[in-house]
TrEMBL record:
This is Aminotransferase class V-fold PLP-dependent enzyme. The keyword Transferase applies. Keywords: Aminotransferase, Decarboxylase, Lyase, Pyridoxal phosphate, Transferase. Coiled coil: none annotated. Belongs to the group II decarboxylase family. Its cofactor is pyridoxal 5'-phosphate. InterPro entries: Aromatic_deC, PyrdxlP-dep_de-COase, PyrdxlP-dep_Trfase, PyrdxlP-dep_Trfase_major, PyrdxlP-dep_Trfase_small. One of its GO terms (molecular function) is transaminase activity. Signal peptide: none annotated.
Amino acid sequence: MVAKQDGPTGPSAGVVEELLNRTARIATDWLASLDRRPVGESASVDELRARLGGPLPTGPVDPLVVVEELARAAEPGLVAIPSGRYFGFVIGGGLPAAVAADWLTSVWDQCPGFYACGPAASVAEEVAGGWVRELLGLPRTASFAFVTGCQMAHLTCLAAARHQVLRGLGWDVEQRGLAGAPPVRVLLGARRHVSVDRALRFLGIGRDSVRVVPADTDGRIEVPALRRELAVEDVPAIVCAQAGEVNTGAVDDLAGVADAAREAGAWLHVDGAFGLWAAASPAFRHLVAGAERADSWAFDAHKWLNVPYDSGLAFCAHPDAHRAAMTATAGYLVQGGPGHPRDAMDWTPAFSRRARGFAVYAALRSLGRQGVAELVERTCGHARTFAAGLAAVPGCQVLNEVVLNQVLFRFGDDRTTDQVLRRVVDSGEAWMSGTTVGAGRAIRMSVSNWQTSDRDIARALAAVQAAAVGVGRG
Ligand SMILES: *Cc1c(COP(=O)(O)O)cnc(C)c1O
């Protein structure tokens, strides 16, 4: 945004200042309302269309009016995701330093695909990437990319895996593509996240190349079955393991998987979307032991690290493969060369992109090593307290072993379970989501927000209790 003094083409500097100050006020008012407002939205889709819709204006509208009316119109359709009482999916909040750095990211409007388009943004990514590597115990030489989320991190990592595995067979996939390429197989646990399949699909690796390995009730891949499957064919393999199953939080036996993958000469990729952050806590690190032996790792900053959407990270133990799979160049670009330490374009699937490193940098710096460990430990503690509280709720059955921040529970049958969930969400006291697992319909609760307090957990438990009693009464 260029603020010109009395400029002919836009608002004056004074107007821009008033706009941004007013916006900050709208933002802080909303944050201040989180504790009292219902967590879910209060407007229907028709109401929201009516509030936000209408014809595209013919001429300009005062920016202050635009923003004030947008905020007013959107308000009843906002879900209080930053609230400590939001437990849906696996969704974090925004640490204050990360939110503020994210605002600056928009104002600075750097485009760090290339060092030349954002030197400070590039270096912030370099520093933050190094911090993450150290914090999670990943190899010092691992390369990395800041991407939109774990889905795109999978794409990045699995493109590197595809490059490496095919190169081992004398096939240059970047040159020759996949048509006529030697076969590659991908071994996935039965309870992997669907984003892995989609990343493979984008990479031209279809379902026929996938071998599904059974998993236990909480979703951990069965290592003996993985070994058997690896031994079936003498075809190069990519193995995907998981740290943090989306419903249960279960973590694969990563050391066992790493042994099996190494013996078979396979590439090991870890989906650690949220669970890999357990490595930052001395109390939970043992759960992900062996993760450091993988070849690539995909995870999120927007979930457990509480960086605002969107923010994901891809790390790769083989920088040459990573770079070969991602890099692109053209005559007009200013890549590499002296004084160009790192061009993100060489490592990400994106061309122009948001300077995501600033918010991750701010999150990590504001928490410090200890703060990240405490965030993991506190949220896992809340999940355990919640699960223990459920034991006192009539008819409630906790389905998972609560190893991390996820609780999965159910009430007798599918219908009752869905009714209880509906009532909890309608109460506005807490927001959770449903799922279907082996036992049938279930309610999943994820404590991923830095703000969730003991009181929030007590309110959520009271809401579940009231819903269960209400359903029991019909
Ligand atoms: C959320 C999640 C993903 C996908 O991450 P996005 O950031 O939404 O792309 C992948 N794997 C697991 C285990 C997840 O929980």
